[in-house]
Amino acid sequence: MELKTASLCSIGGRSSNDDTVRIQARGQDLCVFVGDGLGAYSGGALASQAAAEAVLEAHRWGSLLEDRQLTTVVEQADQAVKKLQQERNGTMKTTMVALVIEDGRAKWAHVGDSRLYHFRCGWLQQQTVDHSVSQMAVMMGQIRPDQIRTHQDRNRILRALGGPDARADVSNTVMLTGGKDVFLLCTDGFWEYVYEEEMEQLLKESSDPQQWLEAMEALRLERAPTDSDNYTAAAVFC
User: Fold this and answer.
1) What is the pLDDT of residue 41?
2) Given this model, what pLDDT does residue 113 score?
3) What does pTM read for this prediction?
4) Which pLDDT does position 154 carry in this prediction?
5) How many CA atoms lie within 13 A of 141 on its CB side?
6) Is residue 72 assigned to a domain?
7) What is the pLDDT, as a whole number, of residue 46?
8) Residue 137: per-residue pLDDT
9) Which of 173, 169, 168, 170 is nearest to 76 (CA)?
10) CA separation for the pair 135, 153 (Å, rounded)
11) Structural domain containing residue 120
12) Helices (H) and strands (E) in the chain — how many of each?
């Protein structure tokens, strides 16, 4: 199975970039990581980078799809961030979402509000559920899902690596159907300004992941204020 990938990572309207994106191939297998660091004075950037390296290091040495392996890797990434906190006497944390593709199968894990979207035949099949106060408001019936983007507590994260609750949600293994599966991993600075129906429409109009990301980025740039957050996205076409 041929895997085509693309990514973007921008400082947005901030003075520094705390996001991290990594794409690592191992033969025909693939690991993609996106993280959004939380913490001032470059602490967030260090946290997201440390988590990314922990995940990619595990991927270099073997499969992450079996049993609890992906859960264990997220726990290792959490420990890497907490070690960084001790070394620097800091409180930096990070969200994360990671996708692993091996032997025509896919699985993903996330902590916080960085998201993964899975499309098949051009249509959105599933997406991760944020660990955030605004997502809780949706689950309690207080707001609609589309109101997360404008909710007053949209930036309050309930789980993060390096925090008291770093539990990951891990997907079931998905069997890929050649030529029909597409994945998008992105931080809140990206999905906040690009709606799901637009992701679908632009996907149908795009021939490769780079074109798709650029089309979505153009929408984001039209809508985001000048002082908007960092934004990061990675796309995989199977």
Assistant:
1) 63
2) 96
3) 0.95
4) 76
5) 0
6) yes
7) 96
8) 78
9) 168
10) 9
11) 4-127+160-237
12) 6, 12
- pLDDT computed for residue 144 by the predictor: 85
133 falls within a domain? no
pLDDT beneath 70: ranges in the chain: 40-41
Q: Which two tokens stand for residue 109?
A: 């894990």
The tokens for 70 are 């992906």
The dihedral over CA atoms of 160, 75, 68, 5, expressed in degrees to the nearest 10, equals: 70
Element (H, E) at 48: helix 43-61
CA-CA distances (angstroms) from residue 170 to 22, 62, 96, 193? 19, 18, 12, 25
pLDDT of res. 184: 98
**How many structural domains are present in the chain?**
1
Task: Identify the CATH number of the domain in which residue 88 sits.
Answer: 3.60.40.10
The closest alpha carbon to 84, from 53, 56, 108, 112, belongs to 53
- pLDDT at site 53: 98
Those residues with Cβ within 8 angstroms of residue 120's Cβ, 6 or more apart along the chain or in another chain:
177, 180, 181, 182
22 DSSP β-pair partners: 33
- Cα(235)–Cα(116) distance, integer angstroms: 10
